[in-house]
Each structure stands twice: as C-alpha cells, then as structure tokens.
Amino acid sequence: MDRTMLLNLGRSALPVACLFAGAVTLTACGGSSSSRSGTQYSATIERTTYGVPHITADNYAGLGYGHGYAIAEDNLCTLADAYVTFRGERSRYFGPTAAASSGGTFGTPNNRNADYFFRFVVNDDVVNTYRDDQPQDLRDLSRGFAAGFSRYVREVQGGEHAGRHQSCRDAEWLAEIDEQDVFRRLVALNLAASAANWVSEIATAAPPAGGEGLSMPLSEPTLDADRVAVGQKAGIGSNTYSFGTDATEGSALNFANPHWYLDGVDRFYQVQLTLPGSMDISGATIMGTPMVLMGFNDDIAWAHTVSTARRFTLYGLMLNENDATQYVFDGAPRDMEAVEISIQVKQEDDSLATETRTLYRSHYGPMINLAGLGLPAWGANNMAFTLRDVNLENTRTFRNFFEWGQAASLEEFLDIAKTHVAIPWVNTAAVSRHDDRALYSDITAVPNVPDAHRDACLVPTLGPAVLQMVPGLPLLQGWTSNCDWLTDEDSAQPGAFGPDNLPYLLRNDYVANMNDSYWLSNPDEPLTGYAGIIGREDYQQSLRTRMGHILARERLDGSDGLGGDKATSDTLREIVLNSRNLSAELLKEDLLNVVCGNGDPSDDEQAACAALSAWDNTGSADARGAHVWTAVWQRIRSIEGLFATPFDAGNAVDTPADLNTADSDVIDALNSAFAQAVVDVANSGVDFDAQLGDLRPYPKAGHTIPHYGGEGGEGYFTVLRNTYMHVVDFPEGEPVRAYTLLAPSQSTDPASPHYADYTQAYADGNWHRVPYTRAQIEAERISLKRLRE
Fold first, then answer.
1. Which domains does the chain have, with CATH numbers?
2. Residue 780 near residue 49 (C-beta atoms within 8 A)
3. Residue range 182-221, pLDDT digits in tens
C-alpha cells in the first residue's frame, strides 16, 4: 500500500494497526475502533534505524497512545521520575534535600523547594484552566498519551520487559499517569523561561517574622544576566538556518540545531506521528509532550532557537508598614493571597511527615525572594517583589505546535503564529515546499511593555540597575495600575504584544538565528524599532552568531571550498559539523607572534606554542591543541582593548576584529594571560598535544564515544550540547527529504539497544536519512508492534 492510499484512508476505515503484517500482536484486530465494544485506543508502532518510532493510528487518541507507549519503552524511568517532580511528590519518595533534577529548564532546586513550587504555581486550577482551553483533538492526543504510557507501566510492574528499566521497575514511585499529568508537564515546560526559572526563589518567599514590615536601606543589586537565561546558565540555546530558493538549487532548505539537555526529562525525543488524512509530522519533541515541537511534514519544515525576549516582569510592591502581607495599589490596601501548601516528607527512618508552608501571591502573580541575588529581602524599606508571567496566562502554546504540524504552506504556518501569538520562549525559522522564501519569526508571547512605558514605570534606583545588569528585564512599579502591561488591538491575550509589534522576516536568500536577538536575522536587512523587552539592536553579536553568518556568507559566495555558491543539503550537513573556532581564526596567529619565541619561555610554554601552531583551529575529535586555545581564550577574552578594530553596528558580522598589538598594556596583559593559561593546562595533567576527542567522551555510561565541538562563547558554531539536528528540503516531484541526528540517542535506559547507537552516529558525523513515506518506513523497519486497549 503506497503513502497516498494510506493518507486517504480516513477515520472510518479499518484500523491502521490491522493493515500491517508481521507485527508483534498484543491484541486481536477487527472492525473499526469505534465499532469494537470497549476499545478506546489503537495504534501501530514501527521502529526504524536507531529506534525512531513511526506511529500510525485512526484517531488522535490512538496517536497519543502509541507515542506514550513508545516513549515509555525508551525512557520509562526518566519520564516517570519527572511526573513525581511535577506532582510535587519528590520529598515523599527521595527526601527533601537532594537535587530535584540533574539539570533542566527548572534548574537544580532541592526536592523540598521543587515540591512547594509545583504545588503552588503549577497547581490543579492552573492545569485545569490550561487543559479546558484546548481543542478536543489535542485533549484526545494527551489522554491517549497518558493511557499508552500507563499501559507500559502496568506491563513492567506485571513482570514484562525483563532486564529493562532497572533503576525504576520496582520503585514505589513508578506509577500510571492521567491526562492531568500530561498537562501539568506542558504547563511546566511553558514556564521554562519565566516562573520555572525561579523555583527556589518562589518556594522560599516569605514575609518577615510576625508579618510586620522592616526599615532598612536598599542594597545594590548584583543580578547576573545568565541567571535569567533558560536553565539559569549560559549555553542553552540553538542555531538555525532557513534558506530561500535564491540561495539553493531549487528547494528551500531548513536546518535545526538545538543546543539542549543531554540528560533528564527536557531532552529531545524523535518520532513520527501519522493520522491518515489529517497529520503526518516527523521530528523532535521534548519528552512528555505528546506532539512534535520541531520538525517537518511533506510541505513545511521548521526549527527553533531560544529567544532573547523576556517572558516575565518583576514588580516592586510598597507594603503596609504594619503588615508585610498587605500592599498598596492605586492608593488602596490589598491583601496578598495566602496559600497553605502541604507536602509529604520522607524522614531518616523512612516514615513520612507532613510539612506545611504558606506562600503568597499578589494580583500580578507569585511573590519572589530575590535577596540571594542582591535585591532587597521581603520587607526591606517596606518593599517586596512579585512576578507576572506571560506564559502563566498563555494557554495557546501547544495548540500552536499542534496546528503547525498540519500546516501545508509557509503562509498558513505564519498565519497560525499570528493568530495564537503563543510560542513561549523560542524563535522560529521555517520553509515550505510551495514558497521561495525563508521565514524568521519571534512572534511569541511577550509582556507588552514598550520602552516608553517601561521607562516611566521602572522602580526608582533599583529598576535602572536591574535593566543595566539584565537587558530587557523591567522591574516595574507595582503600586499603580498605570504600570500594568498594555494591550494591543491585535493582542491574543491581555497584556501581551500583538503580532504587529513583534519581529519577523521573510527573505529569498536566508535567515538565521544563533541566540542573539532578532536584529540580524539577515545582516542585509536588520530588524529595528522593537521594544527592548524583546531584544537588543545595534549591539555586538556573539562569536557564535558571527560564525553562523560567516559560514552562510562563505557558502553563498563560494569561498568555503565546497564547490558552487548555493546551499544544498549536502553542503549544509558538512558546514554545520565542521567545528571551526572563530576566536582562533581571528586572533591565534597574531597572539602566537606576541607570546611565542620571545624572552626565555618555559618548556610548558614552548609545548603550548607548538601545539597551538600545529592546531587546525577546529574542535574536531582528532584536533590537537584545541584545549590549549580554550584555556588561553578563557584568560584573554576579558582583556580591555583586546581588539584593534572596534565593534561597528554597520559591520557587525566582522567586528570587533584584529588583535591590538599596538598597545603595550594589551601586550603585557596577553603575555601574562598566556603564561597563566599554560599553567592551567599543565596543572590539569593533560598533555599540550592531546587529542580533543580523548579529553571529553560523550556522557554515556559504559561507552567511550568522543565528543567534538566547543563552547559558543569561544566562537564554535558546532557546540558541545548539540542534540536533535535536521536538514530538510523538498526535492521537486519527490517526498520531503530529511537528514537527522539525535546526539543523546533515543533511550535513557542502558539496557536498550538504542541507548548509544545514535550517539555513535553523531560522533561519526553519520547523518541519518530518516524514512518518512510508507515505502521508506517499510524498507527500514526493524520492528512493528500493534496496540489496542
């Protein structure tokens, strides 16, 4: 049966699960899913190379069912553990003091604080509101996901799948889930760049003892901009390109390259979901979300990068001097909402005790304790802080992703974004089979705080200081409604920007984003005039951003040595894994002329100079000397006056540049920094000519797989946190063509055959031509399973 016939089956046809022969049969087939008494879910799971599941069903509930079962096969313990977190039950099973995660979008708070946060912020009322605002198809998909995951849990608890999931198969906390759990996970992910970035600060926010205010001077804030980033540190982000047909050999081209989590629940999972006649989407999802979040169908392909837009604002509240749980708003007193939260806490003797905290909300949102970040404690100078989160009010996010998976043109794709204005914290780059253009979009959920409104409403003294340390983050006056967020005529929700005030760009050559702002999505057409809360303009770009544009420019002028002057699937796949290092390309040769061969160098300094001279300026696995340059760069990057050519907003891709060898102070600083870097390498115990791949194997227990690339801040486009990658185009007269890599592999279970196989493919640079059509899937199929319940 060919793909066209499958797509035309429709929902009333014989269940798709029964169309395939040679399956592992778990239940009998016969009749449609609606005609079999008691049958709720039916799905087929076909796995191809690297264990990628291709799920086919007759309705959305069945599609979710197959997805939930498949991801449980691969990642049962990781996902089950996460549901414990999102339900606020970690202290009950794991004690209160251990870290709630090994790393993810909500950081590494302890279990106690994580429990209070999720029970307070991602509570039943919030989850119910989000769930009830979804279309029925999305509800069905989520309900089916829960049922499929739960079926696999029952099978494991019943003794099936021997040898698998050893870390949780007998655990007390391994449990079935329901639709509520699925939506709780979605809400938590929605908040990754806002409230979920402040788990401990919200969970520990409390008024001074006795409830009275305090009178003390305000301290100077020391807020670190990286602390406000997704995951609370630098390095989480992505690269993306979309090439229009002026820059290709006929088909538009899309590149996805998220730099994301290698472990934990927030890692990517690759899947194809097919509902004949309605949906046929392939790509990546973040574990626990039932729909594809980044991928392609036969008409559209898209990718994401983390946006610079702020998704929340802080508000300063002026407290009643006699009651620190009451604040003044528009001249009248208001009581904070006090919410008593109870959790179960495991004791040293394994018994359970109930622990209770009272947490507070203003009408803006949860109170937040920022004393540990240099802002005043609750009550200092009769002030406290609260947070308003645009994505706590945004219920449209996953409806947007769901509809994108069914889009048939770039125009439809863009219209969906403009209608919902719902994407929570990422830019988007997209192309279509039917359009010559490439799209960049930051049409996303952003608090409506134009610059003039922001400037009029900043909290005196503290507001400008916070804005200076964290560009784009306003600390607003919370004592007057004049400083509430504004609403545009085309806003999709109160208090958010409408699409006419958000940046996007359509180009026939290319668009790109490497986690700088929207400003230089294409250097030939800067985007300007947008609010500072969305991002900066006319500012120095990161070395990774510059390298990304340089790679595109060299491809399109033919100077990269790959032949021709067009972007193709082949050339793009080669370019994005080449591990070039821009800081070395800009500075290494001149630096070596300054620091090597002069005076009386030590043996270690001579070894360092020799290694750097021989190094090819890449972070490839077989590169020797790359780690020495990393040590040098860490020491020299902050030298004042390092570059001779300063940043020029009119030439942002190529400036700053040139080592400043005319300044004696810079020369002295370079020599000192180089000597210190050499000591750093020597003290590490690593040889100066060590091979990079031997120094940092991929984090896979029981496997030694070399890792390549480096940090974006050093100028690598190929970074260490590459996760899911795709290069997608639409050859004329042929189905969509996609090459993919999933660097962490599909499974977190060491007993799975798909625990490290994709990782090895990534290490080898072995792009996978992922099957999409019926014929391609059948030709590459390694297993087939039919499910019915």
1. 3-196 (1.10.439.10), 232-309+398-445+498-575 (3.60.20.10), 582-714 (1.10.1400.10)
2. yes
3. 999 999 999 999 999 999 999 999 999 875 555 555 566 7
